[in-house]
Amino acid sequence: LQHLAGPVLESLPRARAPRGWSAACSSGEEAYSIAMVLMDRLGAASPWEVFGSDISRVVLVRARSGVYPLNRIDGIPQDYLQRFCRRSGGSTDGTLEVDAALRQRVRFAQVNLNDSLSAVGEFDVIFLRNVLIYFDAPSKQQIVARVVRQLRPGGWLFTGHSESLSGVSTDLRQERPSVYRRVP
Q1: Partner of 121 at 20 to 30 A CA spacing, among 43, 109, 144, 157?
Q2: Residue 92's pLDDT is what?
Q3: Which of 90, 73, 70 is nearest to 32 (CA)?
């Protein structure tokens, strides 16, 4: 997320509201982390959006709730935890809840990466992390092609550290390990 907070956000055009997509977001931690960075760097008054998607309706219910066990907060800066989360009490003791104002800025929907993605719109930043490892080479190539079509020219794609897009897409330029940029 440090790369998102620095070079990525600095490279985005100021004329439009930035959009970020956490594809295959599971229970939503990544989508909320992206939203924390955008809220921190762009503020509540800026028109930005984060979209999280997954194929599983079950995990999306959890994502929308924004409630997580405290052991899932590793890697989130302490400042972000204090500003954008609160410890839950009562029946959810031992959990952390994402602030309601931040939850309202994140939209979740069921999306199958094997289907057309045109309905999700275009994005400046897409996180497609730790999902491609589950597909064979032809399926991986098709998914990446569909996802890249939703990435605005000059936009950024983040993959998992164990995933390589070498030979998968000619529309992407690798900027650093697991970070790619769509060729304008």
Answers
A1: 43
A2: 55
A3: 73
